[in-house]
Amino acid sequence: MQYHLAHPPNRTMQKLKGYWEDMCGLIIRPQRCDYDITNLGHQLFRIGVGIYERTDLTISNPRGMSLQCSHFEPTQAQRPSAKMPCVVYLHGNCGSRQDATECVTVLLPHGVTLFTFDFSGSGLSDGEYVSLGYFEKQDLVSVIDYLNEKGNVSRIGLWGRSMGAVTSIMYSSKDHSISSIVCDSPFASLQDLMQDLVVSYKPWIPRWMLKIAINTMRASITKKAHFDINDLDTTKYAAQCPVPMLLGHAKDDQLVPISHAKVISERYQGECSLMEFDGGHNSDRPEVFLSTVATFFTHHLINKPAPTRRESVSASPSRSEAPVNGTPVHADPSAGLENHQDPELLEEPTPVSDTHQYTKADRQQSQSDVPNPEDTKLDDEVIAQEERLAAEAAQQAEKERLEAQKAEEERIAAEQKAEEERVAAEAAEEERLAAEKKAEEERLAAEAAQKAEDERIAAEAAEKAEEECAAEEQAKPSEEDETTDQNEPPADQQ
């Protein structure tokens, strides 16, 4: 007995290979966020009585790629001190630095500046692929170096979402000078996430083929993006990270299930508080979560003592990465990043306590210690700056009013012109109809005149005919008389 396959093996394998390629694209080359710099808002803006500014800049990562960055902070005149704490926002694999705009009002009023940037391979930065945290932590190295060299940053916190959350954990496990991190919807490991994606998007694929699928995608990703998915085990880094963490995850997240956050929370070395909220992976975060984030950072960046040690950060502890553009890029840029080995970092780290739940009392206490911007006395420079802003606002309002007035006048003029054209068109139409009516009347009159002429001629012809008939009638008796006279004998003969 012979058996015939519904689909030939080669065709089936080609079909599966296409699925794996699509899945790889979803991971390392999702839809890139293309935006305009104006989407980041005004460079000088106000929140309450505070005046803030946004500085856009470009820095390079260890692979020589340009990273597009923005730093939101108070103006020089309104800085409460020369050094202020800073939170670095790290976006997800489909995001960009514009995702951090909602964080501006969360952090700045609490005396914390905000730094955000496009990861390599994302937004307006250089790079073709994202790596879900592998190369992104090298980007973060460059950002932290810049902030430390700038000299006006006291403590640093990290706020990451999805890919950015994984990057925060991976980086902080090596750099313990980070004061605190907020991680929104990280995955436990990339391999687990890929298995979840295959099961979620292609449920008809047999379980026994998952390992083949993962190995196929692993080889493809290594070839294209030059990193090994097995190196992205977030739980391994979580077990080595003593930095306090607020872990948030949406209950209805279909892309990265909340089970990933629970695994990370269980294995996390330092203080970890898991906060669950309604929504999905890409939904807006509820106000209660954003408020908790503000309180969490205020507590750890302003109120608590600073960490004492920062360890070196390397992209991988064991191997070099694949060459990029023909040049070998080592997992440990700059020969192990010796610039991160300051003398004071050689001290033993402060002992880490057991996992601690960040309580409501902690949040209330930290909120009471938040400096109130309204208590800051505005000096002459700030007043002048406010007056300048008010003048610019008034000038802009007047400009907009004049433009609106001009637009209204143009609209009215256009309407009037349209009305005049309509009236003229109606008049022309009336004239055309009148001309047509006159022509019709003239045609009818001509026809009537012609008809009358024809009738006259016919009448004359008829009258002439009658006259001829009458003349003929008159001529007939005379002939009869002559005939009679000829037939009668003369009288003398009688």
Keywords for this entry:
single chain; 494 residues; alpha/beta; 9 strands; elongated; disordered N terminus
Give the arrangement of secondary structure elements:
Elements: H1 9-28, E1 44-47, E2 50-60, E3 66-74, E4 84-90, H2 101-107, E5 113-117, H3 136-150, E6 153-161, H4 163-172, E7 180-184, H5 190-201, H6 210-225, H7 234-238, E8 245-250, H8 258-267, E9 272-277, H9 287-303, H10 333-337, H11 360-368, H12 380-487
Parallel strand pairs: 4-5, 4-6, 6-7, 7-8, 8-9
Antiparallel strand pairs: 1-2, 2-3, 3-5
Helix pairs in contact: 1-6, 3-4, 9-11
In terms of DSSP E residues, the strand content is 5-15%
Q: Helical region count?
A: 12
Helix percentage range: 40-55%
**Sheet having the most strands:** 9 strands, mixed
Spatial separation of the terminal alpha carbons:
154 Å
Return Rg in Å: 47 Å
Total count of strands: 9
Widest sheet: strand order?
1-2-3-5-4-6-7-8-9
Multimeric state: single chain
Mean pLDDT over all positions: 81
Architecture overview:
The protein has 494 residues and is α/β, with parallel strands linked by helices. 47% of the residues lie in helices and 13% in strands. It is built from 12 helices and 9 strands. The protein has helices at residues 9-28, 101-107, 136-150, 163-172, 190-201, 210-225, 234-238, 258-267, 287-303, 333-337, 360-368, 380-487; strands spanning 44-47, 50-60, 66-74, 84-90, 113-117, 153-161, 180-184, 245-250, 272-277. A 9-stranded mixed beta sheet has the order 1-2-3-5-4-6-7-8-9, sandwiched between helices. A hairpin with a 5-residue loop joins strand 2 and strand 3 (66-74). The longest helix has 108 residues, at 380-487. The model is unreliable at 1-9 and 309-379 (pLDDT under 50).
